[in-house]
Amino acid sequence: MKKSDILFLLFVTALFLPFFISDAIYEWYQSFNATHGMVMSFMKFAILATLGEMLGLRISTGVYHNKTFGIIPRMVVWGLLGMGINMAMIIFSKGTPIFLEYMGMEHASTLMNGDFCPAKFLVALAISITMNSIFAPVFMTLHKITDTHIGNCGGSIKALITPIPMTRIFTGLNWAVLWSFVFKKTIPLFWYPAHTITFLLPPDMRVLFAAILGVVLGVLLAIAAKKK
User: Fold this and answer.
1) How far apart are CA 69 and CA 75, in angstroms?
2) Nearest one of 131, 120, 224 to 181, comparing CA atoms
3) What angle do CA 61, 168, 48 make, to 5 degrees?
4) DSSP 96-128
5) Is 2 exposed, middle or buried (0-12, 13-18, 19+ CB in 10 A)?
6) Cα-Cα-Cα-Cα dihedral of 95, 96, 97, 103, to 10°?
7) Distance CA 223, CA 202 (A)
8) Long-range contact pairs involving 144-147 (C-beta distance under 8 Å, separation at least 24)
9) Computed from CA positions of residues 193, 197, 203, 209, in that sequence, does the dihedral angle turn out positive or negative?
10) Are 67 and 155 in contact (CB under 8 A)?
11) Can you tell which superkingdom this protein's organism belongs to (predicted)?
């Protein structure tokens, strides 16, 4: 194991260990999360999703960080994207059951507040499929655009204030990989079942679980990068 791997593991351990050994810290987290959901969404995704991308970079290149990676701008972008994900989860978790009721499935909204049962699983699956079919492709494309922009700015903080050349980056994306791997494979094979589990969790745990899945996203993007 390389020294960088040891340091990465020590950092992750130091980041999460206090929540397991201190009841006061965990209680503060629960209280702050309940009253400042969007702020916590920013923080969770800024930290966890960036760590996921660092892990993905390690898989694809052998290092956790390079000159164009840009940890700070990535954290800011991931934080903003995390707030968008939280918004999407609220919209689809509330709207999809209402649509199911409109289509004839009785008590779909009530089922999501009750105990686990096959019908609740089907509603959670429907929420996941709806969100990942409508929101995920747009989110993934936007993430790829911001990722490219940060790299083009050399990983500098100036990426956060430099206008994104949307047309140039959008037309230059590797759509073959985005379609054949990211959209066509990861969405139905991973994100559909993963977010079904997400929506079966209590509402206050969903964003955290989704942020943890951001670590998995980093690994998937590393695999996609190797396919170029």
Assistant:
1) 11
2) 224
3) 40
4) HHHHHHHTT-TTHHHHTTS---HHHHHHHHHHH
5) exposed
6) 110
7) 31
8) 144/173, 144/178, 145/169, 145/170, 145/173, 146/77, 146/81, 147/74, 147/77
9) negative
10) yes
11) Bacteria
Name 35's Cβ contacts closer than 8 Å, sequence gap at least 6.
Answer: none
Dig out the tokens for 218 from the structure.
């980093």
Per-residue pLDDT in tens (0 to 9) along the chain, 228 residues: 677 778 778 877 887 777 778 788 878 888 888 888 899 899 988 988 888 888 878 877 788 888 888 899 999 999 999 999 999 999 999 999 999 999 999 899 999 888 899 999 999 999 999 999 999 999 999 999 999 999 999 999 999 999 999 999 999 998 998 898 889 988 998 899 999 999 999 887 888 888 888 777 667 666 666 555
* Chain length of the chain: 228
User: Other C-beta atoms within 10 Å of 217: how many?
Assistant: 24
Report pTM.
Answer: 0.85
Sign of CA dihedral 221, 222, 227, 228: positive
Helix, strand, coil fractions of the chain, as percent rounded to 5: 80, 0, 20
Determine if residue 155 is left, alpha or beta; phi over 0 gives left, psi from -120 to 50 gives alpha, anything else beta. Answer: left
